[in-house]
Every structure is written in structure tokens, then in C-alpha cells.
């Protein structure tokens, strides 16, 4: 059997050539990094959980008409996705101050923002993904004004969906990051949600206790990351409620 072609390897995922033109296979690794890969670990079961969680969120987006790259989950760690041309920007939506916004603006973590705030960071590891303004984006040609308008609209729709889904299971969506890709249908280009949506790229706090259920558990050494992600999956019904740990072999069916 021919070895499949690796298209790209990132910090948490690998992309392989898909079975048909215009598709990729996205493989979720157990690797976790923080602070621009200064901190690294392998966390048993993280890839399995993120594959399932990203599937869950992307399918939910599809159900309410928000276009995204997800086609089909293939197995525990892999999903079939639509090939896109990634726009080199991280699109962040914040509902409450936390992380770099708290540091930058001196707001205590958890402060409610007057409205959801969309930020853009340039995807460039060497530069540490710096915050950029819409002026920079247009002037340097990373995206057009139309793309920007579409990205903001998409990001806010994702925020509405994700906030509702999470609140229903007692979790506050503090902020999240998405990546957006370009696809062509004949001569028309469209923007769709790509990459992943998982606790790696969101801040999720328990509504009652404020307990962190996202990658900050790893960034800030707050305990078991797998336990936190398993809890999110369990509440969403992505894993059967009698399962207590994602690495158990009975988990994925
Ligand atoms: P920040 O507060 O560190 O800027 O992060 C904002 C959101 O973006 C948070 O939910 C975590 C997510 N994020 C990523 O997904 N990847 C990254 O590289 C960074 C820095 C943040
Ligand atoms: N993307 C960051 C890194 O590579 C991780 C993060 O803080 O989310 O290390």
C-alpha cells in the first residue's frame, strides 16, 4: 500500500492528502504546546477528544448553516475535511476579558465586555502571532475588506452558536480562536470555518465554580488537561456519561 502524503504538520495536528481532490485528512495529535511552543507536552487522549469535540461543533455549525470544512469523522483521531486556503489570520472573539487582553488592557480576568470583541492576530510563529489591526490586514493584503467583513460576520455567528451550546451545559464561553479558509466554487470564492474548534482554542469556565476546562489548565499547570476536556465532552454528550476517562478503550464507538 502506498504511503499517504503528508501535506503539513502543525503543533497539534497533521494534514494528509485526502482520498479525493479537494479533501484532506486531518489527524489530531496528543501534543500540546503553549507560549509559542516554549512549553510542550504529550497528553494522552487529547487528540481523540479534540477530534470528537471539533466534529461536534462543526456539525452543529453545519446544522445552522454556518459553512465549515468538516466532511466526516474517519476514526478516533482523523477526520475528512475540505481543502481550503487558510487566511493567515487567527480570528479571536472575546466575551469576557482574559489572557492577553487582560494583560494588554489591565482588565481583570472575567470582566464582562460591553459586547463581543473580534480581534485578529497574524499567523506567524516566529513573531509570536502578533495582534494586527484591520488597517494592517488590508494594507499588507492578508485579506480584502470584503473578506474582513465576512470573517467578522462568521466569527460572531460562531460565537452565538458556541456561547449557547456551552451555556446549556453550564459552561461560559470566555473567548475562542478560529481560522478561516477560502474555497472556490467555480469562479466564486467563499470563506468557511476551518482548522478546529476545541478546548485547545477556547476558554471555557464552569458557570458555577469558574473552574477552567480548556487549555489554560495546561498553560497554567492547573491539573489534568484530559480530565478537563473529558468533562466538556461528557457534558455535551459527546462521550457517554458513564465514561470517566478518554483513554479507556471502550470510549469511542
Ligand atoms: P489569548 O488571550 O492568549 O490571546 O487567547 C485568546 C484565545 O485564543 C483563547 O481562547 C486561546 C486562543 N488561542 C489559540 O487558540 N491559539 C493561540 O496560539 C493563542 C495565543 C490563543
Ligand atoms: N499556539 C500556541 C503555541 O504554539 C499555544 C497556545 O497558547 O494556545 O504554543
Written overview of the protein:
- With 253 residues, the protein is of the alpha+beta class.
- It has 2 domains: 6-84 and 226-235, Phosphorylase Kinase, domain 1; 85-206, ATP-grasp fold, B domain (D-amino Acid Aminotransferase, Chain A, domain 1, 2-Layer Sandwich), CATH 3.30.470.20.
- The chain has helices at 46-63, 99-105, 134-139, 145-167, 216-219, 225-236; strands at residues 6-9, 13-17, 23-28, 31-34, 39-42, 70-73, 78-82, 85-86, 89-96, 112-122, 131-132, 171-185, 188-194, 202-206.
- Strands 8, 9, 10, 11, 12, 13 and 14 form a 7-stranded antiparallel beta sheet that branches. The chain has a 5-stranded antiparallel beta sheet with strand order 1-2-3-7-6.
- Helix 1 packs parallel to helix 6.
- The longest helix is centred in the middle third of the chain and has 23 residues, at 145-167.
- The protein is globular, with a radius of gyration of 18 Å.
- The site of aspartic acid has 8 residues, from strand 4.
Amino acid at each position: 500500500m502506498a504511503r499517504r502524503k503528508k501535506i503539513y504538520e502543525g503543533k497539534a495536528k497533521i494534514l494528509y492528502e485526502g482520498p479525493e481532490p479537494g479533501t484532506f485528512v486531518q489527524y489530531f495529535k496528543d501534543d500540546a504546546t503553549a507560549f509559542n511552543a516554549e512549553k510542550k507536552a504529550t497528553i494522552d487522549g487529547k487528540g481523540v477528544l479534540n477530534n470528537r469535540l471539533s466534529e461536534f461543533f462543526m456539525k452543529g455549525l453545519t446544522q445552522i448553516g454556518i459553512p465549515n470544512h468538516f466532511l466526516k469523522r474517519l476514526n478516533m483521531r482523523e477526520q475528512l475535511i475540505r481543502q481550503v486556503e487558510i487566511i493567515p489570520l487567527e480570528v479571536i472573539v472575546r466575551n469576557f476579558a482574559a489572557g492577553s487582553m487582560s494583560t494588554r488592557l489591565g482588565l481583570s480576568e472575567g470582566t464582562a465586555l460591553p459586547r463581543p470583541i473580534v480581534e485578529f492576530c497574524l499567523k506567524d510563529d516566529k513573531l509570536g502571532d502578533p495582534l494586527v489591526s484591520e488597517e494592517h490586514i488590508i494594507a499588507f493584503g492578508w485579506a480584502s475588506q470584503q473578506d474582513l467583513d465576512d470573517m467578522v460576520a462568521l466569527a460572531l455567528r460562531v460565537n452565538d452558536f458556541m456561547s449557547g451550546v456551552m451555556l446549556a451545559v453550564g459552561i461560559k464561553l470566555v473567548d475562542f480562536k478560529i481560522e478561516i479558509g477560502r474555497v472556490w466554487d467555480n469562479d466564486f470564492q467563499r470563506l468557511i470555518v476551518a482548522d478546529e474548534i476545541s478546548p485547545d482554542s477556547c476558554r471555557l469556565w464552569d458557570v458555577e465554580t469558574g473552574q477552567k476546562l480548556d487549555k489554560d489548565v495546561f498553560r497554567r499547570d492547573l491539573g489534568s488537561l484530559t480530565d478537563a476536556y473529558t468533562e466538556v465532552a461528557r457534558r455535551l454528550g459527546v462521550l457517554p456519561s458513564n465514561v470517566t476517562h478518554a483513554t479507556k478503550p471502550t470510549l469511542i464507538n
